[in-house]
Amino acid sequence: MKISCDVIRDLLPLYVDEVLSNDSKTLVDEHIEECENCSEELKKLSVDETYINTVNNNENKSIYESLNRIRKRISLKIQLTILISVIFTAIVAVGAWDYYDNHRIYMPYKEAKIKWVKDSMQTSEKYRDVNRVISTDGKALILVLNRTHRTNNDSIYSDQVIWKGPNREYSYEDKNGEEKLANIEEVYYMSSDAWERYKEREVLIYNIPQDEFNLERYKREFNVVKRKSKLIWTKSNGFIG
User: Fold this and answer.
1) What is the number of other CB atoms lying within 10 angstroms of the CB of residue 109?
2) How many Å apart are CA 16 and CA 13, to the nearest integer?
3) Going along the chain, which residue ranges are E strands?
4) One digit per residue, pLDDT tens: the chain, 241 residues?
5) Degrees to nearest 5, angle at CA 44 with 42 and 47
6) CA 233 to CA 90: how far, in whole Å?
7) Contact 172, 183 (CB under 8 A)
8) Is the pTM of this model over 0.85?
9) What are the backbone dihedrals phi and psi of residue 88, each rounded to the nearest 5 degrees, phi first?
10) How far apart are CA 147 and CA 125, in angstroms?
11) Which residues 6+ apart lie within 8 Å of 71 measured at CB?
């Protein structure tokens, strides 16, 4: 049966797409072997199809590469976000622990519950440190207890000596850097105002200065803190709480 070129040309797109039945494909094959015009038309369709496939493949490749770049950027951002979050969390944790363990909190005199036992000052309250400041002549001593947030959760203390009393040697370095034995006549406990002043004016935190300028500052600040503090012991009257 002779098939017209119009019919074959209608079938050619399906032939190129390889969706024809075997019988229809055979008919097209037989026709294009004899018909030069339909054979040329098939070549054009095949070239167009190849071009389209190439373009589609390139477009798909471009889209894939673009998506891959976006994925890498998003992945990098996620990684950076996680890293920053971990670093921030670590900094906050270290800061929180440092505050919990090292931030000094003033202990009021009533909470310190200082008592006089066997010629020495003692307390059974939990505390972190005892801060002591001595006058330049070695006759007046100011002390204060402090605690940290961690201190409150520590185990219960036994009685702790915070000042060994006048019958035991208490040495200090004078303005010349020489070690002297103190002759304590008065002991004071810092008030909250005195504690703030003591922390603010760091000259009292260290030993008695040896240069004249800081020595005068030390004397002046010592007297200010002493006036703001509570007298709790004198050589003449003993412990007066």
Assistant:
1) 17
2) 5
3) 105-106, 115-117, 120-123, 129-134, 140-147, 160-163, 171-173, 179-181, 186-189, 230-234, 238-239
4) 567 787 767 776 777 777 777 777 777 777 777 777 777 777 777 665 554 555 455 555 666 666 666 666 777 777 778 888 888 888 888 888 877 777 888 999 999 999 998 888 999 888 888 888 889 888 999 999 998 887 766 655 555 888 888 776 666 766 677 766 778 899 999 999 999 998 888 878 777 888 888 889 999 999 999 999 999 999 999 999 7
5) 110
6) 47
7) no
8) no
9) -60, -45
10) 10
11) none
| Amino acid sitting at position 214 | N
| Contact assessment for residue 149 and residue 98, using Cβ atoms and an 8 Å cutoff | no
In terms of C-beta density within 10 A (0-12 exposed, 13-18 middle, 19 or more buried), how is residue 166 classed? middle
